[in-house]
Amino acid sequence: MTEIERGKSAGRSDSWMRLEEAARATFWGYLGCEVVQADSRQSLIRLKLRPEHLNLLGIVHGGVLASLMDNAMGLVVMIGSPDDKTVTANMNIQYLKSANSGTLSCEARLVHRSRRSFTLQSSIYGEDGDLLAWGSGSFRLVI
């Protein structure tokens, strides 16, 4: 169980339910992401690994992990600034451990917000609770 799951109930919010529904026809839906909890400060999303998420070594592809982090952090930003368009400006990821099956959980937390930018951190956990990757990202408003 992740820190967000321990600290919050997984009640569904209308704002992110609408976002998730709209995203089903995009890369989000293609990956298979599912929102568990989200608000303007943090989010928790999950991804059940499928064979197409793996690389030739039989482990989850780093790009899938990066996309999972980008989606979790971006969700916080979209909820926190619903009337604005935002883009990922930078992401840094540390790959710590591999996985090849099960469900991944990715949590993201807002670290700092200014008038035009957001800074977040994110962690991905395997089904056994092991930390697989840690990262940070900055997002900016498109003006």
From TrEMBL:
Residues 58-132 form the Thioesterase domain. Signal peptide: none annotated. Keywords: Hydrolase. It comes from the Bacteria. It holds the Pfam family 4HBT. NCBIfam families: unchar_dom_1. This is PaaI family thioesterase.
